[in-house]
Amino acid sequence: SSGINAEWPLRPGKHVSHAVHSLTIEDIKMYFNKHVGENNGIPVVNPMLRDPQRVLANAPVMGYDDEFVTDGMKHFDVIMLGVNMKGWHLTAFELLERLSHVYHMSEIWAFAGKKYKKVAKRVEVDSELCDCVRDIDSNGLSKYLQLTAFQIRYPGITSGNTTVTDAYLGGFLDYHISYGLEERPKNIVKSLMSFDFSGTDEELIEDVVNNLVDEAGFEAEEHDIYEEMKHSREHWEWCKEELKGLLTPQLVYDTALFMHCQLNVQKQF
């Protein structure tokens, strides 16, 4: 069948976890299914980063301002309202990084939303393929969402850099690091799939630091805003190509397939 190959059982961890980690009910209604309800079955990283629960079983209501017509202004409003809230959403990102992140995610959802309509016509919700897609414990999605949650809460925790990781052994920190845009390396797949995430942050931080090192690029130094402004055009050209490179046909298809299989199998409330 089109778009499916033997890699799929492992691809959700790499693709779908990134695509869905910050979805809200409003986003799902806009890009995928306007009838979605609170029991939507789309797992996401908890935007309240100091809550004990790292991953939510259902995408939440964000409460966008309905007086805004465009998706961009609704997202911009939420980012600005939360910019000084400690422990909310992407605390390690500067304002411009938070904005670029939400626009990047919207780009993924827009592409996947178009593919979603085509997938819905070709893939039966009760098919064996959808059964595999929905088995998020076996296909890696639940593990990768847990990993993503740790990487958002503790940027650089999987970097292997002890200057950063030693600081986390004491608990949650509002630490600024620009974590690399590149895909997470494949070297941690085996360790991740066998990792037990049933525990509190405090109980698991040391094990994450020691056993889930992906050596992804990050920058721990303070940002020199004025120096960056001098080279902002060049930096953005690089960043733009990195973001485009992440938007692969496999990511778009896998996301559309997951959303179709998950949203349409259960009754919405």
Q: Mind telling me the C-alpha Rg? A: 18 Å
From the N-terminal CA to the C-terminal CA, the straight-line distance is 32 Å
What is the spatial order of strands in the main beta sheet?
Answer: 1-2
Please describe the biggest sheet, giving its number of strands, its sense, and whether it closes into a barrel: 2 strands, antiparallel
**Mean pLDDT across all amino acids:** 82
Structural class: mainly alpha
Q: What is the H/E string?
A: HHHEEHHHHHEHHEHHH
Description:
It is built from 13 helices and four strands. With 269 residues, the protein is mostly helical. It has a two-stranded antiparallel ribbon. A two-stranded antiparallel ribbon has the order 3-4. It starts with 10 loop residues before the first helix and ends in a 6-residue tail after the last helix.
Distinctive features:
single chain, 269 residues, two-stranded antiparallel sheet, 13 helices, disordered N terminus
What's the gist of this structure?
With 269 residues, this protein is mainly α. Helix content is 50%, strand content 3%.
